[in-house]
Amino acid sequence: MVTKGSCMCSQIAYEFSGEPATTALCHCTDCQKWSGAAYTANVVVPRKDFSVTKGTPKTYDAIGDSGKVNKHFFCGNCGSSLYTELEIMPDVACVKSGGLDGGAANHEVKVEFYTKDRLGYAKEVPGADQVTQFGQ
C-alpha cells in the first residue's frame, strides 16, 4: 500500500509505503505554533518508508520541550506544513495528515502527545492513549 500527499500548490509531493506506525495528535506548544491551531494531526511512519517524490521542501529547526531538534519541512511557495522529523524520534517521520490524498487524512487517532499543553476547548479523543509529554 502506498499513501501519497502534497502541499496546497502541488509543488511538493511525497509518499510512504505500508501502514503508519501510529496516528497521533500533538498538543505541544511547538505544534500549536507550527499549525496555527490547537494541535497537529499526524501519521507517524518509518523514515525508511517515506520519501519526497516532487520538489524540495524548505526546513525550519525548532528546539522542542525535550531540548532536541524538531525539523519542520514545509513548502516554500504556499507555506503548507508537510512533515516533521524529531531528533527524539529518529526512526520516524510525522507526516501532517491534512496533506494526504484520497481521504487518507480521515483516520483514527491512536495517541495524543503533550496533553499537558492541550488547550481547554480541545477535548480528549475517546479511546486514544494520552501521553503527558515525551518520556512520561
UniProtKB/TrEMBL annotation:
Span of domain CENP-V/GFA: 3-115
Molecular function as annotated in GO: carbon-sulfur lyase activity; metal ion binding
Top-level lineage group: Eukaryota
Key words, A-Z: Lyase, Metal-binding, Zinc
Entry-linked PROSITE patterns: CENP_V_GFA
Pfam families named among the record's database cross-references: GFA
Name this protein carries in UniProt: DUF636 domain-containing protein
